Amino acid sequence: MKIAIVGAAGRMGRMLVKMAKESKDLEVAAEIDVAEGFAREWPMDTEAVIDFSFHSAVPPSIAKAAEQGIPYVIGTTGLSPEEQTAVDAAARRIPVVQSGNYSLGVNLLLNLVKIAAKTLGPEYDVEVVEMHHKHKKDAPSGTALMLAKSAADGRGVAFDDVAVYGRKGMVGERPQGEIAIHALRGGSVVGDHTVMFAGDVERVEITHKAQSREAFAAGALRAAQWAAGRKPGIYTMRDVLGL
Ligand SMILES: NC(=O)c1ccc[n+]([C@@H]2O[C@H](COP(=O)([O-])OP(=O)(O)OC[C@H]3O[C@@H](n4cnc5c(N)ncnc54)[C@H](O)[C@@H]3O)[C@@H](O)[C@H]2O)c1
Q1: Going by DSSP bridges, is the β-strand pair 125-132/95-98 parallel, antiparallel, or unpaired?
Q2: Considering only CA atoms, which residue is closest to atom 3 of ligand 1?
Q3: Which of these, 54, 88, 93, 142, has the minimum number of CB atoms within 10 Å of its CB?
């Protein structure tokens, strides 16, 4: 299967190219990046595009894939609402897999967090803490947002009504039902996430630590193979994994 990697010069892109070249089922049709020495376009016989680049790069790239009928896998995070609308429009014409995290472990965690939130209820305060390397550009991480949304789902509340991003100053006592997200940055951390359920007499913590970008790249390559031949629509990594 011929795949194109968008953002091929980046941390994730380099890992994707390396793993795709090692796979007997995949062929790298194009390594696309704005960096010098990289391609700007994929060939017409490309069978899937995997995008781990920059939020503003996604709309023009996915629009081109939609015109050509090529499935698209989005790993890039931090999309604005307008950019997300462009993705949704493309998904009416091609299969699109979009996930803030392609690792098996985090996708399992999403289900565990939903169950925990439902079981423990709003008496347990939910705080999501994430840490990433100092080069990460968006905050909080797409994964932290997905985890916080899973907690909101488990409680049956609308995430936007209860979300809080960090705290500073005289914020007052913590109201019940809030779901707060905190982003730490430093060093070379690949991606750590903890969801805390803090009760009055006990605390439950669910943690995932990615040790290598291989965890994300393997999932994205699997998603590209899964997407080929699907009906147009927007899918998540949970669909790919059947979770
Ligand atoms: N979903 C996941 O599992 C997952 C995992 C890790 C990272 N990410 C996300 O993937 C993205 C990339 O992460 P990274 O750590 O590899 O970043 P990075 O900065 O190392 O790489 C991004 C690459 O994209 C390139 N790029 C920028 N604009 C472009 C354009 N218009 N066309 C083509 N290429 C362009 C840059 O030149 C760079 O080489 C980020 O949004 C990050 O949050 C997602």
Answers
A1: unpaired
A2: 101
A3: 88
2-102+213-241 fold: Rossmann fold (3.40.50)
Ligand 1 near 71 CB (within 6 A):
no
Question: Structure pTM?
Answer: 0.91
Pocket test for ligand 1, best of 6, 32, 50, 52 (most atoms within 8 A of CB): 52
Please state the domain extents for the chain: 2-102+213-241, 104-209
Q: Is the CB of 99 under 6 A from ligand 1?
A: yes
Please give the number of the atom of ligand 1 that sits closest to the Cα of 12. 16
Which residue has the CA at smallest separation from atom 21 of ligand 1?
Answer: 10
Order the strands of the 2-6 sheet from edge to edge: 27-32, 2-6, 48-51, 72-74, 95-98, 233-235
What's domain 104-209's architecture? 2-Layer Sandwich (3.30)
36 and 20 in contact (C-beta within 8 Å)?
Answer: no
User: Which residue has its alpha carbon closest to ligand 1 atom 40?
Assistant: 76
**Residue with tokens 């209860």, as numbered in its chain:** 162
> How does pLDDT run across 121-130, given as a tens digit for each residue?
999 999 999 9
What residues act catalytically? Answer: 132, 136
